[in-house]
Amino acid sequence: MSEQHNFDLVVIGGGPGGYVAAIRAAQLGMKVACVDAFKGKDGGKMALGGTCLNVGCIPSKAMLDSSRQFHNLTHMFGDHGITADNAKIDVKTMVGRKDKIVKQFNGGVAGLFKANKVTAFHGFGSLHKGNVVKVKAHDGKDVELKGTNVILAAGSVSIELPFAKYDQKHIVDNIGVLDFESTPKRLGVIGAGVVGLEMGSVWRRLGAEVTILEALPDFLAAADADVAKVAMKEFKKQGLDIKLGCKVSKAEVKKNEVHLTYSDGKDDQKLVVDKLLVAVGRRAATEGLLGEDCGVKLTDRGFIEVDEHCHTGVDGVWAIGDCVRGPMLAHKASEEGIAVAEMIAGLPGHIDFNTVPWVIYTEPELAWVGQTEKQLKEAGIEYKVGTFPFAAIGRAVAMNETAGMVKVIAHAETDRILGMHLVGPNVSELVHEGVVAMEFKGSAEDLARICHAHPTLSEAVHEAALAVDKRAIHKQN
């Protein structure tokens, strides 16, 4: 018979939604358990942090930074008078650095659990009737946890195509693409989304020929069209071969190569690559999560059904992050985790999806918050727009990073900011001016009247806000 332990809250999933919820609940005085199945690369030990920390956000940014340093050394430093002969990169060292960073943060989360007295269980958790979580632990012991409340934060997994099964050697997902032992000569990517563009950029900078096949006819359809247009132009300059409207139908591994067949809307085409990254999106990781008697329901798209407060309809059972509706973003999951922990404690908690920022960490970066022009047109909302290029910003010119722009969209009558869209250097940081302004119901006029330091990249935000009313100083209106 399994051991049973009682808790005020049991969280299934130790990713950025689950571990944050567990810590916040512990801060609020609850007795908390967190169940997580992720195994580290060092012998299968517990590796808290979920996909984001282990094989997503953090390791990909580490490799983006390494590859950017190498690219700048070999392509950009000459403009600064810096030369380096026969520059090389050791891919194994780069991957090792990435692993070291991941392990450091795994330990950081474990340390936070210890400091906040959160009990961690390493294994697969499943929810059953009466808020019982059965844990199939990796050490072979079965444990039962009884929670007054349960938060489901199981996250998501990569979608696998039936004709391109992962072998993590030739055909890889977001995990395998982080662990190549050397730079492939030819890398194929199915999907021009965040993972495809970021990891395509990493290996392109290191010398791979990268071909990205995107099924949709529009590039980055979720982003503002003006921002996407600028980004596409820059990516092509960098040598990323992005083919739109291309549907892949076959991927065969032959003699250490991957042979692809795809349609470009006219004819069948062939492509041969050494490695293939499949990055066509992610699905909720709900397999084995819900016992038949638990009462929690799934939507027709496989997400856990919740209301606007992340409640499943079953007493004491909540769900957050990638396994529920809304954007699959680590920071969205964290905010939901905090909100739910606070609601369980009787405090107010909410998250506004309209002010959740999006970022793609390519070069240049893309970031946005709020609505696009297309969305506003479809909704019949009158608006006005201000834009400003980084090419006219002194700091950007000094950095030799002039590609891109900032775009502010405001309501035509009230001037309230409805969206901010950016492409350029460090826009992953600049977008938060828009987030804060929108959270405080700010207007373009508010941003325009705030003094911005000179010379900074943030001046582009200031000038774009001024441009909404055609009064930008450093460009013709």
Question: Would you give an account of this structure?
Answer:
With about 475 residues, the protein is of the alpha/beta class. It has three domains: about 5-160 and about 285-350, FAD/NAD(P)-binding domain (3-Layer(bba) Sandwich), CATH 3.50.50.60; about 170-280, FAD/NAD(P)-binding domain, CATH 3.50.50.60; about 355-465, FAD/NAD-linked reductase, C-terminal dimerisation domain (Enolase-like, domain 1), CATH 3.30.390.30. Helix content is about 30%, strand content about 25%. The protein has twelve helices and 21 strands. The strands form five sheets. A five-stranded mixed barrel has the order 1-2-3-4-5. Helix 1 runs parallel beside helix 4 (about 90-115), helix 3 runs antiparallel to helix 4 and helix 3 packs parallel to helix 5 (about 195-205). It is an enzyme of class 1 (oxidoreductase). It catalyses: N(6)-[(R)-dihydrolipoyl]-L-lysyl-[protein] + NAD(+) = N(6)-[(R)-lipoyl]-L-lysyl-[protein] + NADH + H(+). Its cofactor is FAD.
